[in-house]
Amino acid sequence: MTTASALSLRRTPIVALLAADGISRAGNAITVVAVPLIALQISNTPLAIAAAGIAATLPMVIGGAVGGVVVDRLGFRRASIIADAASGITVLAVPLLAAADALSLGALLTLVFLSNLLDAPGSAARASQIPELSAMAGMPLPRAAAVQATVARSATMVGAGAAGLLVALTGPAPTMLVDAATFGAAIALTLAFVPHVALPGGDRADAEQDRGLGWRALTAGMRFILRTPLAYAMIAMVVVTNAIDTAGLTVLQPLYAQSLGHGGAELGVMIACFSGGALAGAALYGIVGDRLPRHGLLIVLFLLAGPPPYLVLMFAPPFAVVAVVLALAGLAAGPLNPMIDAALYRLIPAGIRARVLGALTAGVTAAMPLGSFLAGAGVDALGLTAALGSAAALYLVTIVSSGFGRRWRGF
């Protein structure tokens, strides 16, 4: 066997895993587009869309908080297959019930809740396999994390675009058939190309201390975060900054776009500029990797990605300037998740990896609606300009308060 063939075989599992993760995320993007439209068809009221949003978000908090222990017990590969299978079945039920004219709003919300309840554990299970599979492939962990981020962003953009086209051609309910097929494709890739990888002996021994499904096992991920200063600092920063970003995406940017007097049409351009920059940034980090000091680069990127979008909207320059600043902020934001993910993979014992990642997912998801609510209240009380300035200031305070100190040694 040639060296090139041997390298290809070693890399097949990590490539298959990342492909399965990307396909699954594309399916999730289809769900995000189709489900609110289905809810609106069933019950022509904004409350139906709000209920669908709650049914999609709340189970991710629950699944992230408690699903990790099940993933760690079952094993990463097996748990990812089970989660994808269960999610695929619940998603498939939506178009089947709709075709039989038996899909009520209650049934839709229940199916969405169950599907998203399993989505967070499934995502944690796939992410938890990256360190071992990247080592098997001889791929540096930062590069693997960057590739995962690039695939995830690309898949979400492709899935959302495909969903729009499918809804236009077939309607929202039949579109969910494609969503169900994505879970089947992810399972097929995992079964065919992703092997079971045994945990390191030390990690397995550590995991034995948190076996079972009791309170100690359920809280193992959170206890690890609280007693590990570096993990706590990283996750606190991620949770708070994601809440601010959600406030910007769901409240502040739409209001700014609306204020320009073109019916909010600029919002799509703003989102596209930031998303395109972030995709390029994640891909670029996959090439550069760890060639620069990690902690210093993280702080600089946070400073470039966080406050500037809110400051430029606050000062309201010509829209072309806004677009350029958002694209550059996205470019800086792209490497952030890969850098933090790689650091967490190095830091977390494999035996509780899914529980820690699940706790992170739960915290980020729970903080997102809070960010939107506070942004809405801030605009109502202070006005849009002051709310934008407050968001920029809070971003800066978060970076300064949590991004420095001895706890960052080893990042």
Structure report:
The protein is an all-alpha fold and 411 residues long. Helices cover 85% and strands 0% of the residues. It is built from 18 helices and no strands. The chain has helices spanning 3-42, 46-74, 76-99, 105-128, 130-137, 141-170, 172-193, 201-208, 215-218, 220-227, 229-259, 266-288, 294-305, 307-315, 319-333, 336-347, 353-382, 384-402. Helix 6 runs antiparallel to helix 7 (172-193), helix 6 runs antiparallel to helix 12 (266-288) and helix 11 (229-259) packs antiparallel against helix 12 (266-288). The mean pLDDT is 87.
Strand-helix topology:
Elements lengths: L2 H40 L3 H29 L1 H24 L5 H24 L1 H8 L3 H30 L1 H22 L7 H8 L6 H4 L1 H8 L1 H31 L6 H23 L5 H12 L1 H9 L3 H15 L2 H12 L5 H30 L1 H19 L9
Helix pairs in contact: 1-2, 1-4, 1-5, 1-6, 1-7, 2-3, 2-4, 2-17, 3-4, 3-7, 4-17, 6-7, 6-12, 6-16, 10-11, 10-17, 11-12, 11-17, 11-18, 12-15, 13-15, 14-15, 14-18, 17-18
Descriptors:
411 residues; globular; mainly alpha; 85% helix
Helix and strand content put the structural class at mainly alpha
Can you tell me the residue ranges where pLDDT is under 50 for at least 5 consecutive residues? none
How much of the sequence lies in strands comes to: under 5%
Mind telling me the C-alpha Rg? 21 Å
Number of strands: 0
The gross shape turns out to be: globular
Give the ordered list of helices and strands: HHHHHHHHHHHHHHHHHH
**Helix residue percentage:** over 70%
Question: Can you summarize the main beta sheet?
Answer: none
State the end-to-end distance: 38 Å
Number of alpha- plus pi-helical segments: 18
**Nearest-integer average pLDDT:** 87
